């Protein structure tokens, strides 16, 4: 088989396109495949599909294709233009690439597969020997076409949450579809305006379809939901993940304070134990469990706060709202009479929003979904390999968690 014929076959080139010649540049590790069409071929106007004679050709263009063995393989051709009586002179699209992309469809599909499988942009970039901008261009185009294709289906159970882009500042607000574990909207910031902007990316029909909204207990998201979602007050659920996050912070405050006072007496018992107390009991590693058993002492304030935290977790195994309220009231009484100020403060916060905490019983928002989405986003943030700007982060979230059809076709 001649090289022209071989490439004709393996590229899957369809009529009228044929391989004109194949050039191997050993030094550059590159194979150039020139593609042409016979004289007199007619092409369709890209706007109205009218079959027209070839008017002229554009500049020679190059598309990166899948490698042939270790050789970078480039397709090159001059895209034909037609002169449509209705639409004027138009460049005809070529069947192996999308619009102005510098890659063939097969190459982009492979790049998308690699990016998806590795969840690592920096690593994929190396394997594909692509530059930063070209790689992120592939992600951006994939997200753009995925969003255009995505239908606005109803969203009965959603969650809204914040994610820090840089530690401590620059936040994003995200809306999740809790039934499909996908990210549906992103806006910059974590205040009421940002949340309203995020909700506004949903269609009117989607807003009307919302039955329950999971969120933390910050007033910003509560306010925004009330502005945008009809009857929001009866739909808000402060889910276990967010409530327990707050309780964990309180336990940590107790530990820090006690640790400082113990240290002043030369007692280092609480050194390096932060996560021993924060992990739920069944999720502790073997080392953490051993350490826990070693230091747990009912006279320690941190131990008391830990017990209160672990007890509260049972709030989410109550079968209905009234038993959940009863359970909470007992817990509240046991906390409010202690001297653990951070725990008392969080108990009061929950009490103020109790109706929207126990509403999990009626809305069927499972405890794990918000937590699962959170860890999915965190893992992407860790694994992607760095972002130069907030747009990169947003693109990556949609690319990995948008539930989008990303492929060019
Ligand atoms: Zn036309």
Secondary structure blueprint with pairings:
Blueprint: H1 3-11, E1 18-25, E2 30-36, E3 42-44, E4 51-68, E5 71-84, E6 88-91, H2 105-118, H3 121-127, H4 132-149, E7 157-166, E8 169-177, E9 182-188, H5 192-199, H6 204-209, E10 212-215, H7 219-228, E11 236-238, H8 240-264, H9 274-278, H10 286-295, H11 301-312, H12 321-336, H13 341-352, H14 354-358, H15 360-363, H16 367-383, H17 390-401
Parallel strand pairs: 2-5, 7-10, 10-11
Antiparallel strand pairs: 1-2, 3-4, 4-5, 5-6, 7-8, 8-9
Zinc ion binds near residues 48, 86 and 87.
Describe this structure in words.
This protein has 409 residues and is α/β, with parallel strands linked by helices. It folds into three domains: 1-96, no CATH class; 104-238 and 375-409, Nucleotidyltransferase, domain 5, CATH 3.30.420; 240-363. It is 46% helix and 21% strand. It has 17 helices and eleven strands. It has helices at 3-11, 105-118, 121-127, 132-149, 192-199, 204-209, 219-228, 240-264, 274-278, 286-295, 301-312, 321-336, 341-352, 354-358, 360-363, 367-383, 390-401; strands at 18-25, 30-36, 42-44, 51-68, 71-84, 88-91, 157-166, 169-177, 182-188, 212-215, 236-238. The strands form two sheets. Strands 1, 2, 3, 4, 5 and 6 form a six-stranded mixed β-sheet that branches. Helix 16 (367-383) packs across helix 17. The protein is elongated. It starts with a helix and ends in an 8-residue tail after the last helix. Bound molecules: zinc ion.
């Amino acid at each position: 088989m001649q090289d022209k014929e071989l490439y004709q076959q393996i590229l899957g080139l369809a009529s009228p396109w044929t391989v004109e010649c194949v050039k191997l540049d050993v030094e550059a590790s590159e194979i150039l495949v020139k593609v042409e069409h016979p004289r007199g071929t007619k092409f369709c106007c890209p706007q109205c599909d009218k079959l027209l004679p070839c008017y002229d050709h554009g500049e020679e263009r190059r598309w990166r294709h899948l490698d042939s063995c270790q050789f970078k393989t480039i397709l090159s051709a001059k895209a034909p233009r037609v002169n449509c009586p209705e639409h004027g002179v138009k460049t005809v699209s070529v069947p192996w690439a999308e619009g102005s992309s510098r890659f063939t469809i097969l190459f982009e599909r492979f790049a998308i597969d690699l990016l998806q499988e590795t969840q690592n942009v920096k690593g994929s970039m190396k394997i594909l020997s692509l530059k930063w901008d070209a790689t992120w261009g592939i992600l951006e185009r994939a997200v753009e076409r995925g969003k255009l294709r995505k239908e606005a289906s109803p969203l009965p159970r959603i969650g809204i949450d914040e994610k820090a882009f840089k530690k401590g500042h620059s936040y994003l607000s995200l809306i999740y579809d809790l039934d499909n574990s996908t990210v549906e909207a992103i806006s910059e910031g974590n205040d009421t305006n940002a949340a309203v902007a995020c909700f506004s990316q949903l269609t009117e029909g989607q807003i009307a379809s919302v039955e329950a909204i999971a969120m933390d207990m910050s007033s910003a998201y509560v306010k925004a939901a009330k502005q945008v979602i009809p009857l929001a007050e009866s739909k808000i659920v402060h889910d276990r993940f967010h409530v327990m996050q707050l309780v964990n912070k309180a336990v940590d405050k107790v530990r820090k304070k006690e640790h400082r006072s113990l240290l002043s007496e030369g007692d280092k018992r609480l050194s390096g134990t932060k996560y021993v107390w924060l992990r739920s009991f069944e999720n502790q590693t073997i080392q953490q469990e051993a350490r826990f058993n070693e230091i747990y002492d009912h006279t320690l304030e941190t131990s008391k706060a830990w017990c209160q935290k672990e007890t509260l977790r049972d709030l989410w195994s109550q079968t209905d709202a009234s038993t959940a309220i009863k359970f909470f009231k007992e817990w509240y009484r046991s906390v409010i009479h202690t001297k653990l100020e951070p725990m008392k403060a969080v108990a009061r916060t929950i009490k103020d929003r109790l109706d929207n905490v126990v509403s999990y019983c009626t809305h069927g928002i499972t405890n794990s979904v918000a937590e699962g989405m959170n860890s999915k986003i965190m893992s992407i943030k860790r694994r992607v390999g760095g972002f130069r700007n907030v747009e990169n982060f947003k693109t990556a979230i949609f690319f990995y968690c948008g539930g989008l059809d990303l492929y060019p076709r």
